[in-house]
Amino acid sequence: MSNDLDKIDRAILAALQTDGRMSNARLAETVGLSETPCARRLKRLENDGYIERYRAMLSRAALGLGVVAFVYVRFAVHDRAVATRFEREILAIPRILSCHNVSGSADYVLQVVARDLDDYGTFMRDQLRSLPGVTSVESSLSLREIKANGGLPLP
């Protein structure tokens, strides 16, 4: 799929990763095209699945979410039905920003936000530890964010 991208396609994708609300006129100017061909390329990139969706990046600070934790979740028994229930419940918890099934000593790595340490502790006690299959949980708290989701590298 990525072999179909030329220099202008990559420039469009890079510009939109920086500013997803960019007008077609500004996007066209940025990549050196007139508006109609730019709009056609953008539509093709969307239809071909290079662009999954557009969304706003919200401020954790403005929303009062001062704690970011990376949580390593382990299961004692690896039962597919239990893992499926765990994953379904994870999807319904908004404070879990991401969940990855991983190799290594943990089964899942979660990125979780909370207002403060008390809020995080309550979440761990009342929600996370009671999820299906969870037998142990280890947290690493972010001291400061060096780089946020800056977009995907383009080939």
Lay out the secondary structure.
Blueprint: H1 7-18, H2 24-31, H3 35-47, E1 67-75, H4 80-91, E2 96-101, E3 108-114, H5 117-126, E4 134-141
Antiparallel strand pairs: 1-3, 1-4, 2-3
Helix pairs in contact: 1-2, 2-3
Describe the structure.
The chain is an alpha+beta fold. It folds into two domains: 46 residues, Orthogonal Bundle (Arc Repressor Mutant, subunit A), CATH 1.10.10.10; 75 residues, 2-Layer Sandwich (Alpha-Beta Plaits), CATH 3.30.70. It is built from five helices and four strands, in the order H-H-H-E-H-E-E-H-E. Strands 2-3-1-4 form a four-stranded antiparallel beta sheet. Strand 2 and strand 3 form a beta hairpin. Helix 1 packs across helix 2 and helix 2 packs across helix 3. The relative contact order is 0.16.
Characterize this entry briefly.
The protein has 155 residues and is of the alpha+beta class.
Mean pLDDT: 95
CATH fold title of the largest domain: Alpha-Beta Plaits
| Spatial shape | elongated
Give the neighbour order of strands across the main sheet.
Answer: 2-3-1-4
Work out the helix count: 5
Low-pLDDT parts are: none
In CATH, what is the class of the largest domain? Alpha Beta
Class based on secondary structure composition and strand pairing: alpha+beta
**Helix-strand string:** HHHEHEEHE
The total beta strand count reads 4
How many domain modules?
2
Termini gap: 11 Å
Largest sheet: 4 strands, antiparallel
- Indicate the proportion of strand residues: 15-25%
Report the C-alpha radius of gyration, rounded.
Answer: 20 Å
